[in-house]
Write a structure and sequence with these properties.
Elements (H helix, E strand, L loop, with lengths): L11 E5 L2 E8 L2 E8 L5 H4 L1 H4 L8 E7 L1 E6 L4 E4 L4 E4 L3 E6 L4 E5 L14
Antiparallel strand pairs: 1-2, 2-3, 3-9, 4-7, 4-9, 5-6, 5-8
């Protein structure tokens, strides 16, 4: 059976300092669209909500707008920008680079728990 939902009418919306997340749940897919404003950093905006030192969500994503830098627990780093498809395992910090918002689409499923109290 075909399922179609609009991100304009998400099943859930989570606001956090300098950003927000919209989540749509479909059979076999949890889809998230996150908007991070300039100055957003996971360890400053989401850490206290998640209750972990680093983001422990696995991300399979696509960067539609803006730029984001990612720092892994092991010290390795990477940066995503418009048109980049990425996989980021748990155990990372991330922050917006530059003066424009970063818009990311996430298809990994764990985004359903992102920025939830007691979540990841």
């Amino acid at each position: 059976m075909t399922e179609i939902k609009s991100i304009e009418k998400p099943d859930d919306r989570r606001d956090f300092p300098r950003g927000h997340l919209e989540v749509v749940n479909l059979t076999g897919l949890v889809f998230g669209m996150a908007t991070f404003e300039p100055g957003w950093r996971w360890t400053e905006s989401v850490k206290d909500i998640a209750g972990t030192d680093l983001c422990e969500v696995h991300h399979n994503g696509y960067c539609a707008e803006g730029r984001m830098r990612i720092l892994m627990r092991d010290g390795s780093e990477g940066e995503v920008g418009p048109g980049d498809v990425f996989v980021v395992p748990p155990g990372h910090d991330a922050w917006v680079v530059g003066d424009e918002p970063c818009v990311v689409f996430d298809f990994a499923g764990g985004i359903g728990e992102y920025a939830k109290s007691g979540g990841r």
